[in-house]
């Protein structure tokens, strides 16, 4: 079986590759790609694989965009952190899903499902159905956090968050009053839970609110440098690949 891995986290991509080889030494990983732009270019220039493993969120957008820019001739297995209602939408035709963190047994079952299919539905059509599903579904985003406080608990409102950062795998909420709170959720969790109209995943370590931005500067090699109002000493860079999505987010 020939496989293409589309994943922007290097460790996750390597782990997937190693699990594939553990499942079968006959599996051939044709490419490991980390952006939508490079994925589209690869599919346009190469024969398509037997299956593509795609993370949904990539550095330069959602992997659904790959299907809007090129016609895939292979089934797709998405990797996702979406909640239960969204996961049901993936159980259609030849598209399957794997819920992160991915386990080898789940990956093996998904590959067996692909191998057992006699005829493959057009993944581009299925993705369009999936996008329509998301448009019709009302999504409820997190509005507050319940945090331990002394001998009890306290509530932190999302509207009071200036930005979020991760350090040594600990997630910190920086509030508009300058105080900080640690939460159990990962950055990936919060990227899904916070309203994308108000928060943007600038890089792996930072989620910023629209109100947190002080200034925006062009940087080397097409990158952008962001200065935060309440933490101007913090260096925050947005990659060349993610810069267009960031500009679009600001220009709504």
Automatic annotation (TrEMBL):
Keywords: DNA-binding, Phosphoprotein. Residues 2-115 form the Response regulatory domain. The keyword Phosphoprotein applies. This is LytTR family DNA-binding domain-containing protein. The modification 4-aspartylphosphate is found at residue 55. Residues 145-252 form the HTH LytTR-type domain. Gene3D superfamilies: 3.40.50.2300, LytTr DNA-binding domain (2.40.50.1020). The keyword DNA-binding applies. It comes from Chitinophaga nivalis. One of its GO terms (molecular function) is DNA binding. The lineage of its organism: Bacteria, Pseudomonadati, Bacteroidota, Chitinophagia, Chitinophagales.
């Amino acid at each position: 079986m020939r496989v293409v891995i589309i994943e922007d986290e290097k460790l996750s991509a390597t782990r997937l590759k190693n699990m594939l080889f553990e499942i079968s030494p006959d599996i051939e990983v044709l490419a490991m790609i980390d952006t939508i732009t490079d994925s589209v270019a690869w599919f346009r220039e190469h024969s398509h694989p037997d299956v593509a493993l795609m993370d949904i969120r990539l550095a330069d957008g959602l992997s659904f965009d790959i299907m809007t820019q090129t016609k895939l001739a292979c089934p797709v297995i998405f990797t996702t952190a979406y909640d239960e209602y969204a996961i049901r939408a993936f159980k259609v035709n030849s598209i399957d899903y794997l819920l992160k963190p991915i386990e080898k047994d789940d990956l093996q079952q998904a590959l067996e499902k692909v191998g057992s299919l006699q005829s493959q539905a057009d993944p581009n059509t299925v993705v369009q159905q999936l996008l329509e599903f998301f448009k019709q579904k009302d999504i409820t985003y997190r509005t507050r956090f319940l945090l331990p406080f002394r001998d009890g608990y306290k509530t932190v409102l999302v509207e009071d968050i200036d930005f979020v950062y991760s350090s040594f795998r600990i997630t910190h909420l920086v509030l508009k009053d300058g105080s900080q709170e640690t939460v159990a959720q990962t950055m990936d969790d919060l990227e899904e839970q916070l309203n994308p109209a108000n928060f943007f995943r600038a890089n792996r370590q930072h989620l910023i609110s629209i109100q947190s931005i002080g200034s925006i500067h062009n940087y080397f090699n097409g990158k952008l440098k962001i200065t935060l109002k309440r933490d101007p000493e913090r260096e925050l860079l947005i990659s060349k690949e993610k810069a267009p999505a960031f500009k679009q987010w600001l220009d709504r």
